[in-house]
## 1
Amino acid sequence: MSEMLLQPGLVILAYLLGSISSAIIVCKLMGLGDPREAGSGNPGATNVLRIGGEKGKLAAAITLIGDMLKGVVPVWVAYALGFEPMWIVLVGFAAFIGHLYPLFFQFKGGKGVATMLGVLLALNFWAGLATAATWLFVAKVLKISSLSALIATFLAPMYVYFLTGEISWVLVTALMTAILFWRHRGNIQRLMSGEESLIKTK
């Protein structure tokens, strides 16, 4: 009976952890205002970098790490508790949903790229690394953050399939990808019209 309660209990805790918005908290602590009311309005690392000025790089780095850890930590806990693969990936999915629709911030969250990457790194390090490497490569070549994220996450279910063979993980990864594409629908429209902004480099 305790095991039956433990598994859904951790799923709920993972959602609550995901609901803690790294971007909003970091920006408030560093005096940068609310990222939902500046720049693109998205509470994520890219927008924190955009609005952060001199503090932008540090604030964005802390935000990125925080968002990734929201995916990593609950999945690691599920592993440590000996959960079955289906429950492990459901815990990660709950953290991902928490980031997108946070209970503590009026259900207005980020787009989920960093938290999804954290989940993948915790599920299988090599699948997560392949996804991250794809993002970095595309970003380096094309210099468009949203397109890099879309291509990397589109390939993520394939990486998970070939590196783990765990069908439940592949299906949930594909579901996260579909949701992430929906969250990026505005970016996709701008990409199609050639209006999406480039990554600024110095």
## 2
Amino acid sequence: MGALERLPPPTSLLLVAGAAGLLVGSLRSDVFAQLTVQGLALGAVYGSLALALVLVYRATRVVNFAQGELAMATTYVAYQLIKWGLSYWEAFFATLAIAFVLGTVLEVALVRPVQHRSVIAAVIVTVGLFVLIDGVVNWIWGGDFKYMQSPFGTKTYHLGGVSIARLYVGMLAVVLVSVLLVWALFRFTKLGLAMRAAALRPAESALVGVRVDRMLAIGWGLAAVLGAVAGLMAEPSQFFLDPTLMQPILVYAFAAAVLGGLESPAGAVVGGLAIGVSLNLVVQYVHPITSELQTPFAFAVLLAVLLLKPSGLLGRSEVRRV
């Protein structure tokens, strides 16, 4: 994934201005501060799923439309493990291992055979996976609401006049730790270096002995792990589990990935945080926009970025000579 990209001055100024605005607003208003923390927690979830989308896209040039449903399915796996007697955190880590295996198997069995045929073929496979996973989950667990124990309890922290639920602090901490571990893997290990090389320069990497197909499969596995983290952290904020859990979150993740830049892992995380905070604040302070309009608002952001700056905030424009 590499270190944070060197930002162009306009983007740097925009990010600094946004952070300063949030800080000033939080100091002046307790409600604003509370909404900002909640938005950061939810945005971290969007950023985790957006990062999974970016990892798959960088490795295979395929937009994985099944990423959200895969995250939802692994959340149901955790639910089942808890029902079988595991504690929440035992089920959490077991689910991450299962997600990694599932992601690699899907890449080897379904994506790899069509990857080099055409982009549309790979996209159709991921759309088919979306439908297949949704059907399997409904078949095994049904479409009714399921409930999981909260991993963080119901305690609330009070900082001055600001009340912050431990749920949001825990969500933010777990997602950011997961993202930092993935960053460290890519930045400081030989495996991470090989995966980066396989994603960016597959032909050259194969010539120097990198097993490109294996690296791409591992990339899909890591993307599935990040998706599982997003699903497991999204469920407590929704208060119940059902097969549609990740569908709106996938829209926000797409918006975050496009906002940050589909080529930029760091941009996916920044975009997720920006989308999460923006949605919370817009619903509170822009009265024509209600919670029912959050998803259309995310679509509007996505379209605006595609029209005005297709490479995203941290992405890099491709220049081709002909």
